Fold this sequence. Notes:
The complex is a heterodimer of chains A (117) and B (110).
Chain A: E1 3-6, E2 10-12, E3 18-25, E4 33-39, E5 45-52, E6 57-60, E7 68-73, E8 78-83, E9 92-100, E10 103-107, E11 111-115
Parallel strand pairs in A: 2-11
Antiparallel strand pairs in A: 1-3, 3-8, 4-5, 4-9, 5-6, 7-8, 9-10, 9-11
Chain B: E1 9-12, E2 18-23, E3 35-40, E4 47-50, E5 64-69, E6 72-77, E7 86-93, E8 99-101, E9 105-109
Parallel strand pairs in B: 1-9
Antiparallel strand pairs in B: 2-6, 3-4, 3-7, 5-6, 7-8, 7-9
Amino acid sequence: xxxxxxxxxxxxxxxxxxxxxxxxxxxxxxxxxxxxxxxxxxxxxxxxxxxxxxxxxxxxxxxxxxxxxxxxxxxxxxxxxxxxxxxxxxxxxxxxxxxxxxxxxxxxxxxxxxxxx
Amino acid sequence: xxxxxxxxxxxxxxxxxxxxxxxxxxxxxxxxxxxxxxxxxxxxxxxxxxxxxxxxxxxxxxxxxxxxxxxxxxxxxxxxxxxxxxxxxxxxxxxxxxxxxxxxxxxxxx
Lengths: 117, 110
């Protein structure tokens, strides 16, 4: 069965960086996009970017351009999302999701990142 | 890319139907048949309910249906059940390799 398992919660200070991992299993990792979506406390979903593991090609939401980097390691079927220069309003649950038919058909369990001094 | 607009809330009694909208522009919903809908219970990850405007993934009850007219998409939940109480988000491909979500609708089963 398809599973996306994310790394654990993180606490970071303002100005620091964060890196969340997303390990895929149950399907061919290189055949599907991995998207990153975040949700601030009590707020809606926000698309951040995606990677095509086969080519490592990436696309990012304009809002995060220059601050976010999505990478992958095909040898361990894992995608990573790094966000730099963190601010308190980056506090959110970060999800990875598999892209299929221009939708997100499987989701990770989410990773809470808290940015606070 | 601005978020798609959804009503904050919708409600219905058990067994009734509820329909709510998701309004975008010609650059997203109006330009592509790539609207999807997600159900999210508190503290849980979203779950795909509809993709490609009106297609249901395996395992999603046929009580859930989607449609689109112009730049507005809609989700209908028929035969409301207690477990349908959740937040629902629409999403669309926005062109130029961008994606956008809706603002979310909280569905209450009375």
